[in-house]
Amino acid sequence: MYIVFEGMVGSGKSTQSKKLFEYLKEKYPDWKIIHVREPGSTIIAQEIRLLAQSRVFEEDMHPITEAYLYAAARAQLLHTVVKPTLDDGGIVIADRSFISSLAYQWEARWLGFDMVMDINREAVGEVLPDLVFSMQLDIDEALGRTFDATGDKFEKMGREFFEGVMRGYEKASRLPILADAWCDVDSHGSVDEVFERILEALPELE
Question: By residue range, what is the domain housing residue 197?
Fold first, then answer.
């Protein structure tokens, strides 16, 4: 099973994805369960992450360049880690997926759906999430929570940009390839309160 957590920065997706991973590892110690994040979780994908969102250049990165970099990191992770784990009957808990590119590059960067999907088609292949937890939180509250010591450039974007991100997630939730897997999670409240909502929505795994 491929379980993906999505949401804008500060929505709690990273915290909750790790918490679910730890919960399932404890509950099913004999199962193969891994946690990954996009971009990252392989040496190559992590280097692409630094290039795409952490390093400062004398020129602005074009949104198309950005989209290709995220797709490249995604291809490395999905084809070398995620798909082999799923093929082996394991469970993958992921902090982000290609859905982030739909929210960020399709809508907030104005590249359009067709271009982003074309860029990601070979990277994603048939590795689509079985369950998407979409973390729902007010933009202002989410931005007030964020701080990435490695320098995530998106944390410096203004409210208008993240309004675009939220529109992108809303559009993605209605896509036929995702609609049946989509689950909105109220991300307001304590970490434990939010996690209880996730457990309530989690299907039976046995």
Answer: 2-201
d(CA 36, CA 136): 21
Q: What predicted TM-score, i.e. pTM, was given to this entire model?
A: 0.93
**What CATH number should be reported for the domain holding residue 104?**
3.40.50.300
Q: Could you tell me the pLDDT band of residue 26, with boundaries at 50, 70 and 90?
A: very high
3-class DSSP string for the chain: CEEEEECCCCCCHHHHHHHHHHHHHHHCCCCCEEEEECCCCCHHHHHHHHHHHHCCCCCCCCHHHHHHHHHHHHHHHHHHHHHHHHHCCCEEEEECCHHHHHHHHHHHCCCCHHHHHHHHHHHHCCCCCCEEEEEECCHHHHHHHCCCCCCCHHHHCCHHHHHHHHHHHHHHHCCCCCHHHEEEEECCCCHHHHHHHHHHHCCCCC
Number of domains in the chain: 1
